[in-house]
Amino acid sequence: MFPKPIEKQSQAAQVAYKSLLPVALAFWLAPLLAVALFSVKPDADFTSGNYWGLPSSFEGAANYGQVFFNSDMPRYLLNSFMITVPTVIGAVALSAMTGFALGIYKFRANLWIFFMFVAGNFVPFQILMVPVRDLTLELGLYNTKTGLVLFHVAFQTGFCTLFMRNFIRALPFELIEAARVEGVSEWRIFWYVVLPLMKPALAALSVLIFTFIWNDYFWAVVLTQGIESQPVTAGITSFNAQFRAAYHLMSAGSIVAALPPVAMFFLMQRHFIAGLTLGAVK
């Protein structure tokens, strides 16, 4: 059912694997390297058609300085943090409680409620675009960070509940039974028994949701406009001039926008990997 490890494959397969892996890595990194190259080129290279050649002069400091000090990029970055951080906290907190309820308690509608949480993940974003936009307009939440946060929390809670419920069901149920025998209330069981065991899962889920929300472009364009509430993914388009795009500034802004999720992943790497692999080996 599962493929054999590469170490157990034939010698020819191992040679082909080791030869093709750098090629696949180069293809995967090509767009990022192209954006990094564009970010240090002068504007004259694009007007002269020097798209893929070496920069005629290194303008990295000037480009990045213009992005930080002569544009609204710092405000867009702040908006992204003000949208992403509350979304991560809200979605993870709600899913921890719903995952505990669906994973611990046995009642007749348990499976149906769980299916309702999961079913939202199968609805295409494009179908929800018009109704969600109309709803935010009626509630006065259109073009606000609060509206974007509430929508992201509502939509991400389904996936987070799936993640948390499966994780909690893998925990030793004897711990909960022992706490109940001692007369511990259900809320204290959740807070003092289950929640400490969920730390790897909470860390892994926080990294995933932070990356999802920070990199969101679709809903940022649909539900916000202008510097007051747009996150950085939508704000990068502000470098478009009336007749052409400032590719060197857009590339520099893209590199800057990609740094926070990358930094968070490396800061939480140990907990992230532990959360994904916990329970994989008995």
Describe the structure concisely:
The protein has two domains: 6-62, no CATH class; 73-276, Orthogonal Bundle (MetI-like fold), CATH 1.10.3720. Helices cover 72% and strands 0% of the residues.
Low-confidence stretches: none
What distance separates the N and C termini? 19 Å
Helicity level, as a percent range?
over 70%
Based on CA inertia axes, which overall geometry fits?
globular
Which CATH class of the largest domain is shown? Mainly Alpha
Topology-level CATH name of the largest domain: MetI-like fold
> In DSSP terms, counting alpha (H) and pi (I) runs of 4 or more, how many helices?
14
CATH superfamily of the largest domain: MetI-like
Q: What is the tally of beta strands?
A: 0
Instruction: Domain count, please report it.
Output: 2
What percentage of amino acids are in beta strands? under 5%
Tell me what you see in this structure.
The chain has 282 residues and is mostly helical. It has 2 domains: 6-62, no CATH class; 73-276, MetI-like (MetI-like fold). The protein has helices at residues 11-38, 43-47, 60-69, 73-104, 110-119, 125-139, 145-169, 173-181, 186-197, 199-214, 218-223, 232-235, 247-267, 269-277. The model has no long low-confidence stretch (mean pLDDT 87).
Secondary structure blueprint with pairings:
Blueprint: H1 11-38, H2 43-47, H3 60-69, H4 73-104, H5 110-119, H6 125-139, H7 145-169, H8 173-181, H9 186-197, H10 199-214, H11 218-223, H12 232-235, H13 247-267, H14 269-277
Helix pairs in contact: 1-13, 3-13, 4-7, 4-10, 5-7, 7-10, 8-9, 10-13, 10-14
